[in-house]
């Protein structure tokens, strides 16, 4: 199993190109199941989750080809990929494939809408909470699907070959269920109105893709989305948005180590709340034509309280990284997690580096320390792993992060991007 070795203490300086967003690329790739035409996606990041989804889609009969091999399009860099689901050969998504990644469950929406049936294993993914799928099931039933859960599989069928539009009010905001219902409703008969829908930028990116494919969707990015179903969708060419979580992660790394880094291609509108919080901590954030410039010189890190919540509030996917930053703040901060009930596994690992954190229910109270000291630590989930990397960059001495396969799910060329800015960081294979 690969490890990452970091020798902390260097300020970061230079520029980091921001990759396409994992959490946008995955639903866009799944949308390729909705049409027998080719869907071309630009800026698809080279990540373990993307490769896994390619395998899952391949099992349903989706062919893919990677365009061009120009500079920065070689192995390991974001690419343009064509997906073609001309013939769906299998409407079952098996446990062996789906259990590795939560988002793979989302194939249920397009398969059901286009083929009239789907059998999809209950999902896996990061162990950050129980993560039920009740809203998906309730929402698809509202669109007139017949559903059964049998031997760990959701078995779904349309009543007479097609889903039917309806009004569905999400009892709780869910990104995944909004993606799935938006895709399913695009091919349903009649109008669907989704209320209390997720407003995340990845929802807007998927809606742009579906609209380019011929779907009739209004209101994506607000909490009411209206979808007028069409008979068929066509191919399209769509660009994956820049990764707001990768952007926020590197911004927090600079805020922690100090320095001056240009996050190339980053879009401030995708993470304004997190950027505002970083400014409160003392970082200088400057949006430019190239991206976002992040600077922190001299002055210490001010403690700031945050509470995670659905977009546009502070994202849960940046909570661990922010906690890393707060471990060296000049005072106490409170970090409250409201999305996932078990997303504090980084707390005990940060403590190995000398952080002072106590947990009280869903709130972590972080008492900043003057310095952290390097230690061996273990990655427990995707964003927790990168919080340990950030803390390791600021800690004195050597930190080894074990189980980095978690990191490879969501961070493209992390070691290369950070070492290009002066960090001492390397992967140790095996
Ligand atoms: C691949 C991807 O895009 N993953 C993101 C997506 O995950 P994901 O789409 O899984 O997260 P959701 O927005 O669905 O989850 C939000 C909350 O709703 C709950 N819930 C969800 C569905 C359901 O049927 N029943 C239910 O109770 C979840 O357990 C959680 O407590 O949004 C999360 C919240 O921004 C992010 O942390 C993940 O990085
Ligand atoms: C939790 C995440 O991913 P997933 O939903 O695939 O587990 C994440 O991207 O932070």
TrEMBL record:
A Pfam short name:
EPSP_synthase
- Which pathway features in its UniProt record? Cell wall biogenesis; peptidoglycan biosynthesis
Q: Where does phosphoenolpyruvate bind?
A: 22-23
| CDD domains (alphabetical) | UdpNAET (cd01555)
Reactions catalysed: phosphoenolpyruvate + UDP-N-acetyl-alpha-D-glucosamine = UDP-N-acetyl-3-O-(1-carboxyvinyl)-alpha-D-glucosamine + phosphate
Does Protein biosynthesis show up as a keyword for this record? no
Amino acids binding UDP-N-acetyl-alpha-D-glucosamine: 102, 131-135, 172-175, 317, 339
Q: Which family does it belong to?
A: Belongs to the EPSP synthase family. MurA subfamily.
Give the protein's recorded name: UDP-N-acetylglucosamine 1-carboxyvinyltransferase
| Superkingdom as given in the UniProt entry | Bacteria
Function text? Cell wall formation. Adds enolpyruvyl to UDP-N-acetylglucosamine.
Q: Which SUPFAM superfamilies match?
A: EPT/RTPC-like (SSF55205)
Q: Which residues form the Enolpyruvate transferase domain?
A: 8-418
Question: Is Membrane a UniProt keyword of this protein?
Answer: no
Q: Which residues are modified to 2-(S-cysteinyl)pyruvic acid O-phosphothioketal?
A: 126
| Subcellular location field | Cytoplasm
One annotated GO molecular function: UDP-N-acetylglucosamine 1-carboxyvinyltransferase activity
Q: Which residues form the active site?
A: 126
Task: Give the record's keywords alphabetically.
Answer: Cell cycle, Cell division, Cell shape, Cell wall biogenesis/degradation, Cytoplasm, Peptidoglycan synthesis, Pyruvate, Transferase
- EC no. given is 2.5.1.7
């Amino acid at each position: 199993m690969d490890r990452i070795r970091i020798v902390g203490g260097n300020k970061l300086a230079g520029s980091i190109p921001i990759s396409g967003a994992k959490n946008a690329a995955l639903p866009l790739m799944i949308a390729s199941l909705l049409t027998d035409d080719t869907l071309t996606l630009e800026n698809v990041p080279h990540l373990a989750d993307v490769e896994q989804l390619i395998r899952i889609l391949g099992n349903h009969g989706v062919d893919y080809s990677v365009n061009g091999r120009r500079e920065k399009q070689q192995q390991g860099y974001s690419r343009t990929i064509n997906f073609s689901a001309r013939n769906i050969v299998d409407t079952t998504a098996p446990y062996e494939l789906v259990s590795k990644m939560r988002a793979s469950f989302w194939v249920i929406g397009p398969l059901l809408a286009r083929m009239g049936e789907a059998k999809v294993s209950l999902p896996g993914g990061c162990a950050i909470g129980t993560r039920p799928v009740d809203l998906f099931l309730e929402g698809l039933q509202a669109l007139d699907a017949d559903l059964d859960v049998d031997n760990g599989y959701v078995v779904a069928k349309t009543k007479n070959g097609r889903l039917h539009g309806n009004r569905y009010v999400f009892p709780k905001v869910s990104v995944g269920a909004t993606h799935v219902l938006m895709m399913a409703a695009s091919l349903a008969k009649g109008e669907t109105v989704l209320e209390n829908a997720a407003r995340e930028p990845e929802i807007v990116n998927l809606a742009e893709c579906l609209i380019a494919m011929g779907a009739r969707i209004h209101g994506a990015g607000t909490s009411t989305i209206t979808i007028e179903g069409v008979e068929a969708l066509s191919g399209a060419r769509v660009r994956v948005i820049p990764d707001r979580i990768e952007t926020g992660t590197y911004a927090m790394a600079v805020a922690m180590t100090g320095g001056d880094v240009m996050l190339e291609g980053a879009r401030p509108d995708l993470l304004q709340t997190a950027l505002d919080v970083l400014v409160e901590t003392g970082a200088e954030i400057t949006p430019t034509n190239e991206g976002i410039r992040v600077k922190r010189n001299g002055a210490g890190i001010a403690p700031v309280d945050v509470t995670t919540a659905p977009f546009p509030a502070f994202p849960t996917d940046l909570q661990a990284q922010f906690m890393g930053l707060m471990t060296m703040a000049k005072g106490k901060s409170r970090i409250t997690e409201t999305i996932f009930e078990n997303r504090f596994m980084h707390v005990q690992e940060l403590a190995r580096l000398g952080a002072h954190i106590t947990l009280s229910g869903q709130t972590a109270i972080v008492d900043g320390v003057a310095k952290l000291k390097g230690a061996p630590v273990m990655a427990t989930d995707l964003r927790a792993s990168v919080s340990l990397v950030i803390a390791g960059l600021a800690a004195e001495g050597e930190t080894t992060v074990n189980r980095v396969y978690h990191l490879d799910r969501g961070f493209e060329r992390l070691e290369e991007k950070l070492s290009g800015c002066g960090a001492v960081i390397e992967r140790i294979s095996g």
